[in-house]
């Protein structure tokens, strides 16, 4: 059982530092596992930024887009008493799947992402719509530790499974939410009930998606899967590593423990507004099948920080 932190620990200011860049330089000694995961995400999205919006179902799937719009409307209804634009932090905001929807509602949005390539895509899309988000090139871990700012909404969108310690980041994020504000997370995989079957179904799902959206990578992708099966486990990561994606999507196979995140939020004084698990799939056919099998599931959490 996880030891509950005190309310003071959750709501108090985090240790400050001079700047995110200064923290990065100070951490440039021995490469920790977390540092390698951060670097892998930067490299991974350098390769995939231009095709991310086409390939990722959380961006391309109309049903999932509607979920985001509905969730933001629900949160927005609680912001009506504010006499200013809500201040929002999009953690790992990437190409703007969530940020652009916030900006369209007139919110004051800060987007933090470790990938300059993803932020460049967002910058172009925002400029085309006349939006001016604040873009910060940094890892989420470094930003949340360094900043003293607080926000009316701190959000994650398909991000937590990319983080070495998502529980620690969730707790850091909770301290950055103002009284009366919200924590929001969506599109992260749950811990699978049947890991082997989930891995097999996910492999099939990836092949179908590659055939439809990225056919040039079908053969190389199959080759990477075969190499993983034949490769020894990396002792640092506890898995075979044949590409940066194997490190960047750090918890994609083991899943993210939504119950642990719920406990962290409740211990930090949040009320859970909504918690939902739902079947996913990168293509319509595989998602239809998965609605019955429930081998691939993601979750969302909306949590409100009360006055006490």
Would you give an account of this structure?
This protein is an alpha/beta fold and 308 residues long. The chain has 15 helices and 7 strands. It has helices at residues 7-11, 20-26, 33-48, 52-55, 57-60, 62-76, 99-104, 116-129, 140-146, 166-175, 195-213, 218-230, 245-248, 258-267, 284-293; strands spanning 87-91, 108-113, 134-137, 151-157, 177-189, 270-279, 297-305. Strands 3-2-1-4-5-7-6 form a 7-stranded mixed sheet, sandwiched between helices. 38% of the residues are buried.
Q: What is the 3D form? A: globular
What is the CA-atom radius of gyration, in angstroms? 19 Å
Low-confidence stretches: 1-9, 11-30
What's the name of the CATH homologous superfamily? Vaccinia Virus protein VP39
How many helices? The count is 15
Average pLDDT, all residues: 87
Main beta-sheet annotation: 7 strands, mixed
The N- to C-terminal Cα distance equals: 24 Å
How much helical structure, as a percent, in the residues? 40-55%
Order of helices and strands: HHHHHHEHEHEHEHEHHHHEHE
Number of strands: 7
Overall structural class, as computed from helix and strand content, comes to alpha/beta
Portion of residues in beta strands equals: 15-25%
CATH architecture: 3-Layer(aba) Sandwich
């Amino acid at each position: 059982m996880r030891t509950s932190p005190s309310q003071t620990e959750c709501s108090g200011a985090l240790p400050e530092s001079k700047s995110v860049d200064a923290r990065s330089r100070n951490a440039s000694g021995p490469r920790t596992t977390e540092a390698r995961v951060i670097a892998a995400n930067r490299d991974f999205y350098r390769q995939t930024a231009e095709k991310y919006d086409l390939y990722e179902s959380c961006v391309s799937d109309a049903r999932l887009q509607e979920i985001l719009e509905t969730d933001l409307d629900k949160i927005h209804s609680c912001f009506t008493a504010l006499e200013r634009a809500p201040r929002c932090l999009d953690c790992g905001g990437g190409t703007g799947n969530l940020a652009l929807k916030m900006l369209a509602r007139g919110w004051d949005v800060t987007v933090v992402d470790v990938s300059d390539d993803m932020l460049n895509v967002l910058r172009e899309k925002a400029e085309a719509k006349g939006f001016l988000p604040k873009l910060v090139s940094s890892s989420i871990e470094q930003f949340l530790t360094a900043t003293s700012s607080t926000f009316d909404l701190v959000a994650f969108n398909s991000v937590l499974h990319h983080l070495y310690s998502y529980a620690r980041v969730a707790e850091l994020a909770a301290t950055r939410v103002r009284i009366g504000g919200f924590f929001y997370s969506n599109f992260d995989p749950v811990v699978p009930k049947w890991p082997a079957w989930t891995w097999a179904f996910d492999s099939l799902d990836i092949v179908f998606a590659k055939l439809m959206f990225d056919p040039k990578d079908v053969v190389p992708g199959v080759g990477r899967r075969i190499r993983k099966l034949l490769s020894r486990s990396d002792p640092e990561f506890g898995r075979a590593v044949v590409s940066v994606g194997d490190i960047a999507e750090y918890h994609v196979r083991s899943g993210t423990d939504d119950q642990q995140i719920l406990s962290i939020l409740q211990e930090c004084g949040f009320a859970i507004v909504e918690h939902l698990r739902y079947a996913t799939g990168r293509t319509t056919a595989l998602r239809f099948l998965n609605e019955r099998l429930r081998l691939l599931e993601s979750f969302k959490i909306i949590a409100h920080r009360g006055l006490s």
